[in-house]
Amino acid sequence: MKKLFVSVLIVAFAQSAFAVRHHEFAASYGEGTHNQIVNGFANVVGTILTIGYADVTDLTWSGAYNFKYAFHPVNFVGLGVVTSYQTSKGDIVQGTSKNKNGDLRVVVGKAEGKYLTIMPTVSLNWFDFDYVCMYSRLAAGYSLTKTTQTHTVEKVTNHTSDSYWGFQFVPVAIEAGSPLVRAFMELGYGYEGIINVGVKCKF
C-alpha cells in the first residue's frame, strides 16, 4: 500500500512537471516597491541629518503596474520578461515655518516621478496541478526614472533622468483557478512590490 501511494505521488509530480509546454500573459498590481521604500527612508534620513531644514519630497505613489510574458519549455520552468511601471507625485516641503499642525514645514514646490523597469525573469514551480500552483520567481534587469521638481518660490523647474539595475525576488507565490485563467498572489521584494496580485492567462 505504501509503495502504491509513493508511486502515485511520483506519477502525479512527473505529469505536473513535464506537462505540455505553454505560454502565459500576466497583469498585476504591486504595493511596497523598492522605489517607495528607498525614497521614504532617504527622506527621513535627510530630515534628521539637517534638523528638518532640507528640501524633502513628500510623495504619494501609484503602486506598480506589472505586465509579464513567460514561456514554459517544461511546466516547472518559466522563462520570460516583466515590465513594471510606477508614478509618484506630491509636495516639496522645507522646514522654515509652521503649518496649521504646528510642524516646522512649508510647501515650496511640486514633484512628479515616472519609473519604468524591464527585467528578464525565471520561475520554478514547486507543484502545478489543474487548479492550483505554487512557485518561486527571480527577475533582474534595468530601471529608468524621470523626475520633475517645480519650485514655486524660486520659479525653477528641474528635470532629472536616471537609470540603474532593477530586481524582484519572490520566494513564495500561489495561483489558483482554471487550467487557462488563474488569479495569483506573490510575496517578495523589489520593483514589483512586496505584495503583488493579479491574473494570468495560459495558452
Describe this entry's structure for a reader.
The protein is an alpha+beta fold. The protein has a single domain, classed as Porin, CATH 2.40.160.20. The chain is built from two helices and nine strands. The protein has an eight-stranded antiparallel beta barrel. The longest helix is centred in the first third of the chain and has 16 residues, at 2-17. The two termini are 38 Å apart. Residues 8-18 and 45-51 have low confidence and may be disordered.
CATH architecture tag: Beta Barrel
CATH class: Mainly Beta
Structural class: alpha+beta
Overall geometric form = elongated
Q: State the share of residues found in helices, binned by percent.
A: 10-25%
β-strand number? 9
Looking at the structure, the CATH topology is Porin
Average pLDDT over all residues: 82
Oligomer: single chain
How many individual domains? 1
Give the neighbour order of strands across the main sheet: 1-3-4-5-6-7-8-9
Count every helix, treating DSSP H or I runs of 4 or more residues as helices.
2
Order of helices and strands: HEHEEEEEEEE
Measured between the Cα atoms of the first and last residue, the distance is: 38 Å
How much strand? over 45%
- What can be said about the biggest beta sheet? 8 strands, antiparallel, barrel
Low-confidence runs of at least 5 consecutive residues: 8-18, 45-51
Rg for CA atoms: 22 Å
Quickly list its features.
single chain; 203 residues; alpha+beta; Porin; eight-stranded antiparallel β-barrel; 16% helix; 66% strand
Detail the topology: elements first, then pairings.
Layout: H1 2-17, E1 22-31, H2 34-49, E2 56-61, E3 64-74, E4 77-98, E5 104-128, E6 132-151, E7 156-177, E8 181-190, E9 195-202
Antiparallel strand pairs: 1-3, 1-9, 2-4, 3-4, 4-5, 5-6, 6-7, 7-8, 8-9
